[in-house]
């Protein structure tokens, strides 16, 4: 049996979104959205784009967008996190390793909201390393060691061993003055993998 996990290089980049308002909102009441971008990796994340807009019946309060407390100008009176017809997000550029960026904005209720906590959060994040947008507050991916543990717990399973591989592009591997011109797949496993 084989179970496959994929781990894009941008996986250490995360987005947490919180709606700072409790209970109900009357028409005209305001709520604060806080989005926290964290790059936990040892390398920079490039062309990081965060997209978001308040869910109805909330509407963005013009001029309320902040990045680490500093005003971010609106684009044509639109929220910087959903600009233009395509609702393009805000490009934060390169985020250095082990760096956190906080984005905040206000939204006003155009009609009553019975339970603020029931409103769907819509934040998404992408980067050059991981171009497929990921939802805010996404669950941590299953690690290889956790998957092995889960598989060992299945009745009748005698062993579960991890095998990892990475694909290197052509001409990226050099040894002893020689460059391997073809793509190379490098495998890594522990001794018990061979034994089983």
Structure write-up:
The chain has 196 residues and is mostly beta strands. Helices cover 7% and strands 37% of the residues. Strands 1, 2, 4, 5, 6 and 8 form a six-stranded antiparallel beta sheet that branches. A four-stranded antiparallel beta sheet has the order 7-3-9-10, with no helix packed on it. Strand 12 (173-175) and strand 13 (178-180) form a beta hairpin. The longest helix is centred in the C-terminal third of the chain and has 9 residues, at 144-152. The mean pLDDT is 90.
CATH class group of the largest domain: Mainly Beta
Number of strand segments: 14
Helix content estimate: under 10%
Number of domains: 2
Whole-Å distance between the termini? Answer: 13 Å
Task: Summarize the biggest pleated sheet.
Answer: 6 strands, antiparallel
């Amino acid at each position: 049996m084989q179970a496959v996990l994929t781990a894009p290089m941008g996986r250490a980049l995360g987005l947490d979104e919180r709606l700072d308002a409790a209970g109900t909102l009357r028409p005209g009441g305001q709520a604060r959205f806080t989005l926290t971008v964290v790059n936990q990796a040892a390398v920079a994340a490039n062309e990081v784009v965060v997209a978001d807009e308040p869910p109805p019946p909330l509407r963005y309060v013009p001029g309320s967008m902040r990045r680490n407390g500093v005003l971010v100008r609106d684009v044509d009176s639109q929220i910087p996190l959903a600009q233009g017809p395509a609702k393009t997000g805000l490009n934060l550029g390169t985020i250095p390793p082990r760096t956190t960026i906080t984005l905040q904005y206000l939204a006003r209720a155009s009609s009553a909201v019975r339970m603020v906590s029931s409103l769907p959060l819509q934040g998404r994040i992408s980067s050059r390393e991981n171009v497929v947008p990921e939802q805010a507050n996404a669950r941590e991916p299953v690690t290889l060691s956790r998957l092995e543990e889960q598989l060992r717990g299945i009745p009748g399973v005698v062993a579960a061993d991890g095998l990892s591989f990475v694909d290197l592009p052509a001409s990226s591997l050099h040894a002893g003055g020689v460059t391997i011109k073809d793509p190379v797949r490098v495998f890594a496993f522990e001794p018990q993998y061979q034994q089983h």
